[in-house]
Design brief:
The protein is α+β, with helices and mostly antiparallel strands and 244 residues long. It has helices at residues 7-11, 29-42, 52-61, 91-96, 122-133, 177-185, 228-242, and strands spanning 15-22, 25-26, 68-75, 80-86, 98-107, 138-143, 148-151, 155-160, 163-167, 188-191, 203-208, 212-219, 222-223. β9 (163-167), α6 and β10 (188-191) form a beta-alpha-beta unit. Keywords: Lyase, Pyridoxal phosphate.
């Protein structure tokens, strides 16, 4: 695989998308294409938009029989890459639920790079590695106003009683594909959320395109007693996948 040195690989002016393949089918492909093509425009990349036929052309040439796989697409001015890799989440991850910590790195809610999956992804990877060394699965970022934004590779949802909350996009976060699914299918309150708000939280769950919905066991020393709503949403999501 040849990669040409361009502004994507010199300065991060490129983007990527990670898509779940379920029984060979790309999940939420239309939504992923909308997001990636918007990013092409917003970043001013002088490239053709990504079409569905181009994705299926690659998938038809690279078929597999695994139930779950991962498709990664990387676009920059001179590069257009399609890659497949192994799916690594297991049922044990859902059973034990994730453990979270608060990152010391702040999200810049004024930067265009915060709102797209660009090749400027170093904060996410380095902070996730730091969290793993500390025994956590995912770091949670705050913004410059100390408001909760998102995880390194996920969006965050907070349950208080029977109400579900998630940070507003304007707080500085990626509008995740499964985040969009949750907001569209459940009564979700999008708001500005600070750390003090977490004192009354009953449960937390994370979303991303690969694990879907992930229940959370604890945020640092705070252990959540319930995962009822999280697991109910997870079961509904699994049914949705089974019907695509």
């Amino acid at each position: 695989m040849l990669i040409e040195l361009d502004e994507g690989y010199s300065f991060g002016l490129g983007l990527f998308e990670t898509i779940l393949l379920y029984k060979g089918k790309p999940v939420f492909l239309d939504e992923h294409l909308v997001r990636i093509n918007k990013a092409i425009i917003d970043l001013g990349l002088n490239i053709d938009k990504l079409e569905k036929d181009e994705v299926f052309q690659y998938l038809n040439k690279n078929k597999n029989i695994l139930e779950y796989e991962v498709l990664k697409i990387v676009l920059s001015e001179k590069n257009r890459l399609f890659l497949k890799r192994e799916y690594t989440y297991t049922e044990k991850d859902y059973q034990r639920a994730f453990s979270l910590n608060i990152s010391e790195v702040r999200r810049n809610e004024n930067s265009i790079f915060t709102f797209h999956k660009t090749l400027n992804y170093g904060d996410n990877i380095l902070e996730k590695r730091k969290s793993k060394k500390l025994g956590y699965d995912e770091p949670i970022f705050l913004n410059s106003k100390n408001q909760i934004t998102e995880g390194a590779t996920s969006n965050i949802f907070i349950v208080v009683g029977d109400k579900i909350y998630t940070p507003k996009l304007s707080c500085g976060l990626l509008n995740g594909i499964v985040r969009q699914y949750i907001v569209s299918n459940y009564d979700v309150i999008e708001s500005e959320i600070d750390l003090e708000f977490l004192n009354n939280v009953d449960e937390i769950f994370l979303t991303n395109s690969l694990f879907g919905i992930m229940p959370v066991n604890n945020l640092e020393k705070k252990v959540f007693k319930s995962q009822e709503i999280s697991k109910n949403i997870l079961q509904n999501y699994k049914k949705y996948l089974g019907n695509i």
